[in-house]
């Protein structure tokens, strides 16, 4: 009895001295925000995308087996998250969990990696073009249903998903998902960014290369595409392609510093140079000379771009544009209504 009492006292002291760490994110207005009471941490996220280009296997298990071969090769990159192509099995609708998600859950658990598993799903009597998010332990973390199916999909009983896209919390940040034809509805992408998405994943039948370059730049977020045909690519917040699949390797991987920001050169040239001098190899700085822009990323797990923004009083590009807009509006002459 004395041993039990002593153990309880010791446990109480440990809880007082080392309280359990609260979740660093809290849900607000349908999105997430970082808890300011928790220590900051700079996340370098290892992402992988897989292409099914050149696979001629029959729908169902054959094409899934062939895709798994490529996925297993990509495991050498030790990714934090992988994205697979739209409706990757080309098979009939499945319940979730089902045969495909169970197989990918096992892979996720064995490789301690998130997996985006896009399949046709059946739920509550309806059929959806879905992307299932599986966590590192192989659990189903969430699901995105394609909001804008094509006319052909609608004719084949695919039901549109709910109009507002969700975001998903991972242990490295907030992500969003869009699927194929969704690329044409730009407001959805903006909404994901506004809700805090650092990376938007894009399972698709085709690369949508021009659109994704534009969307990455407009929203200043990373985009990872995974395609049935042609190249799967990883896009920088500038819109540039970081990595892509091709003839000799059907998967691509990259390390994404998710805190990366773009800045207008106005008021920032000398400050960025000071950062470069002080932090050297701990940061990555890229000058876009013809755009009057510069990007800043931290390569040090203990140093965030937010820290650098505070230390050097930087203004990220979107905030700078908004500040300029506010100043312009204050000085704009009042226009009288035009008489008809």
SSE layout and pairings?
Elements: H1 2-17, E1 25-28, E2 31-34, E3 44-50, H2 61-74, E4 81-83, H3 99-111, E5 114-123, E6 126-134, E7 140-145, H4 151-155, E8 167-170, E9 173-177, H5 186-194, E10 199-204, H6 209-219, E11 222-227, E12 233-235, E13 241-244, E14 251-257, E15 261-264, H7 269-279, E16 283-288, E17 293-298, H8 305-312, H9 317-331
Parallel strand pairs: 3-4, 4-5, 9-10, 10-11
Antiparallel strand pairs: 1-2, 3-14, 5-6, 6-7, 8-9, 11-12, 12-13, 15-17, 16-17
Mean pLDDT: 90
Report the strand count. 17
Q: In CATH, what is the class of the largest domain?
A: Alpha Beta
How many separate structural domains? 2
Secondary structure: helix percent: 25-40%
The number of helices is 9
Order of helices and strands: HEEEHEHEEEHEEHEHEEEEEHEEHH
What are the segments in which pLDDT stays under 50 over at least 5 consecutive residues? 13-40
CATH architecture assignment name of the largest domain = 4-Layer Sandwich
Strand order of the largest sheet: 7-6-5-4-3-14
Q: Which percent band covers the strand fraction?
A: 25-35%
**What's the N-to-C terminus distance?**
92 Å
Judged by helices, strands and strand pairing, the structural class is alpha+beta
């Amino acid at each position: 009895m004395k041993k039990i009492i002593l153990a309880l006292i010791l446990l109480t002291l440990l809880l007082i001295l080392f309280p359990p760490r609260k979740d660093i994110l809290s849900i607000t207005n349908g999105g997430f925000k970082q808890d300011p009471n928790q220590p900051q941490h700079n996340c370098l996220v290892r992402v992988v995308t897989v292409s099914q280009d050149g696979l001629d296997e029959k729908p169902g298990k054959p094409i899934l087996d062939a895709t798994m071969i490529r996925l297993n090769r990509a495991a050498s990159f030790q990714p934090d998250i992988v994205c697979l192509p739209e409706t990757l099995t080309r098979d009939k609708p499945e319940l979730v969990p089902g045969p495909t998600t169970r197989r990918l859950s096992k892979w996720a658990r064995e490789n301690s990696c998130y997996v985006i598993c896009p399949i046709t799903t059946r739920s509550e009597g309806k059929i959806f073009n879905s992307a299932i998010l599986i966590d590192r332990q192989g659990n189903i973390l969430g699901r995105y249903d394609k909001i804008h199916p094509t006319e052909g999909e609608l004719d084949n009983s695919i039901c549109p998903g709910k109009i507002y896209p969700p975001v998903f919390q991972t242990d490295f940040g907030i992500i969003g998902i869009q699927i194929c034809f969704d690329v044409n509805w730009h407001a959805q992408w903006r909404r994901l960014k506004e809700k805090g998405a650092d990376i938007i994943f894009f399972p698709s039948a085709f690369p949508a290369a021009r659109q994704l370059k534009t969307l990455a730049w407009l929203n200043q977020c990373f985009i990872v595409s995974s395609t049935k045909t042609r190249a799967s690519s990883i896009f920088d917040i500038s819109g540039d392609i970081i990595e892509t699949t091709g003839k000799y390797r059907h998967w691509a991987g990259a390390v994404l510093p998710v805190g990366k920001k773009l800045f207008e050169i106005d008021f920032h040239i000398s400050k960025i140079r000071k950062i470069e001098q002080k932090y050297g190899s701990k940061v990555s700085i890229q000058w876009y000379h013809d755009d009057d822009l510069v990007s800043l990323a931290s390569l040090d797990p203990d140093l965030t771009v937010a820290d650098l923004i505070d230390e050097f009083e930087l203004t990220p590009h979107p905030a700078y544009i908004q500040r300029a807009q506010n100043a312009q509006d204050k000085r704009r002459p009042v226009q009288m209504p035009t008489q008809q």
